[in-house]
């Protein structure tokens, strides 16, 4: 048991992850990362090095079962899964005080401890025990003894999926409740993005473990053709066009201009100089992918008070030069700041990036394509090509229909109102992933809480003095709903205990 600390090595790691994920976000076979923390870290790159981590956080490790769904001898193998707790404000087991449990997603837990604020900001109000659990195969929660062995091939990666992950979370939560004798403490699971999906799915699959779930920016409907494949990039385009029509038009025209120059003798050399690339360009797509990834990222994480879409468009519209590509480069500089080079820096693929690649090539097949009515060049999602690429990488094909088979999704309003309860699906409508989220109330307790100006996972980030009123209001609504769930639970618990006592007396 020890308190978590952030190091320079961790900061270097996360910056590397961000640069890799941004440079590949729009590549044909890469599905944009769903990280709830990336926007904050991009805005404040020194955050993890300077973050004042609470001394009240204590780190533990649980001997987790490798395979929850099989009884073969090797399934009983265990690995050390990291979780962190904060007891400071907990009302205790005797009071059946609540537990707020954050479900880690596709990254080490360290970044969440620095950036996710919803639990800590509301710990006093709920008298809650705070619990943060790391996702298997990320951070320090690595099966098979080492990352190299865990990521070796499809045989070792085969235990790396969402069903195993939420079973992990359920097992750790039950272990903690037993250890603390907190049998009647209600648990609210909280997650953002992919972690938000996990929170909603855990509530549906393990209702005896979690009383309710807050699923922030969780695109649970972006599977199996429920959401149009082009929805993501349509929202990115809308974000830019609503910010500046001239910026939108400049970006839309830039792609053909890049292709035109690239086709000329020494054209790639000209583009390399124009965009101050770190290495000479080998194709026009290398530049276009990098620019596209910037636009995707700033739209997904267009959070106050920085509003990076406005920063990029301010650079484009404010350029002193009139040619299109000079304007585009001015937007890059406005966003990235003054650097020695901007495009294709040397990178080393991280295990986080590798992990997400496996997840999207196995079960998390989010079919994102680019339609004809965006500011990007059309690039429709081709499932057959995607499957072939995944088979080439891992030797096994993805299962594009498994998520909807295992968790549901089709006709969600018709189905969930009959058996589901106590889930908040929160979204910011400027987030491109919001189009794959639940945006309408399903029942009296499966609720959609959306903000017109919000972006990815804003509601679960740390509260700031600069937070706009609409964001403050969104969080208050979520807290009010959760308190209502807990109050009803306590009323039911009281009635249950009275009934038990009556039966004993009789």
Features of this protein?
8 strands, alpha/beta, 10% strand, 20 helices, 506 residues, eight-stranded mixed β-sheet
Overview of the molecule:
This protein has helices spanning 8-24, 38-43, 47-50, 110-115, 118-126, 147-150, 154-157, 162-179, 194-205, 231-243, 245-262, 267-274, 284-300, 308-317, 324-336, 351-362, 383-394, 402-406, 412-416, 469-505; strands at residues 57-65, 78-86, 99-103, 129-133, 187-192, 212-216, 423-428, 446-451. The chain has 506 residues and is α/β, with parallel strands linked by helices. Strands 1-2-4-3-5-6-7-8 form an eight-stranded mixed β-sheet, with helices on both faces. Strand 5, helix 9 and strand 6 (212-216) form a beta-alpha-beta unit.
Poorly predicted residue ranges: 5-29
The average pLDDT is 91
Number of contiguous helices: 20
Biggest sheet character: 8 strands, mixed
Share of residues in strands = 5-15%
Q: Give the overall form.
A: globular
How far the N terminus sits from the C terminus, by CA atoms, comes to: 47 Å
Helix-strand makeup class: alpha/beta
The H-and-E topology, N to C, reads as HHHEEEHHEHHHEHEHHHHHHHHHHEEH
Q: State Rg.
A: 23 Å
Strand order of the largest sheet: 1-2-4-3-5-6-7-8
Tell me roughly what share of residues is in helical segments.
40-55%
- Tell me the number of strands: 8
């Amino acid at each position: 048991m020890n308190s978590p600390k952030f190091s320079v090595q961790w900061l270097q790691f996360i910056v590397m992850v961000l640069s890799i994920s941004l440079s590949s976000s729009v590549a044909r076979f890469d599905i944009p990362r769903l990280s709830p923390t990336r926007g904050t870290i991009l805005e404040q790159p020194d955050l993890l090095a300077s973050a004042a981590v609470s001394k009240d956080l204590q780190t533990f490790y649980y001997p987790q079962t490798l395979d929850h769904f099989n009884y073969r001898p090797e399934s009983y193998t265990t690995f050390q899964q990291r979780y962190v707790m904060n007891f400071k404000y907990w009302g205790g087991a005797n009071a059946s005080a609540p537990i707020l449990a954050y479900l880690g997603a596709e990254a080490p837990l360290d970044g969440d401890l620095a950036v996710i604020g919803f639990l800590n900001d509301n710990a006093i109000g709920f008298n809650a025990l705070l619990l943060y659990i790391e996702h298997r195969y990320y951070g320090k929660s690595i099966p098979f003894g080492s990352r190299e062995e865990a990521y070796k091939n499809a045989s070792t990666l085969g235990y790396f999926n969402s069903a195993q992950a939420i079973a992990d979370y359920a097992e750790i939560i039950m272990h903690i409740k037993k250890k603390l004798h907190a049998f009647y403490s209600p648990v609210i699971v909280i997650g953002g993005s992919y972690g938000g999906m996990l929170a909603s799915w855990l509530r549906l699959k393990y209702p005896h473990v979690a009383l309710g779930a807050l699923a922030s920016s969780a695109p649970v409907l972006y599977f199996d053709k429920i959401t149009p494949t082009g929805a993501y990039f349509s929202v990115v385009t809308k974000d830019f066009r609503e910010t500046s029509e001239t910026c939108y038009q400049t970006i839309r025209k830039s792609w053909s201009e890049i292709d035109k120059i690239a086709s000329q003798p020494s054209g790639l050399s000209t583009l390399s100089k124009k965009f101050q690339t770190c290495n000479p360009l080998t194709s026009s797509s290398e530049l276009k992918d990098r620019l596209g990834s910037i636009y995707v990222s700033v739209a997904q994480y267009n959070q106050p008070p920085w509003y990076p879409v406005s920063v990029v468009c301010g650079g484009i519209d404010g350029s002193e030069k009139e040619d299109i590509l000079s304007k585009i480069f001015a937007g890059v500089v406005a966003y990235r700041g003054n650097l020695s080079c901007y495009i294709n820096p040397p990178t080393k693929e991280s295990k986080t990036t590798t992990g997400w690649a496996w997840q999207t090539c196995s079960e998390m097949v989010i079919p994102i394509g680019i339609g004809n009515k965006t500011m990007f060049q059309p690039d429709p999602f081709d499932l057959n090509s995607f499957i072939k690429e995944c088979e080439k990488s891992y030797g096994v094909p993805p299962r594009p229909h498994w998520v909807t088979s295992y968790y549901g999704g089709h006709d969600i309003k018709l189905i969930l109102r009959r058996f589901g309860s106590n889930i908040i699906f929160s979204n910011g409508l400027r987030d491109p992933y919001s189009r794959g989220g639940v945006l309408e109330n399903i029942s009296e307790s499966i609720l959609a809480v959306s903000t017109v100006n919000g972006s990815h996972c804003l509601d679960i980030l740390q509260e700031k003095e600069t937070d706009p009123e609409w964001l403050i209001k969104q969080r208050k609504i979520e807290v009010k709903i959760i308190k209502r769930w807990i109050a009803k639970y306590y009323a039911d618990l009281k009635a249950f205990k009275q009934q038990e006592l009556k039966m004993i007396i009789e």
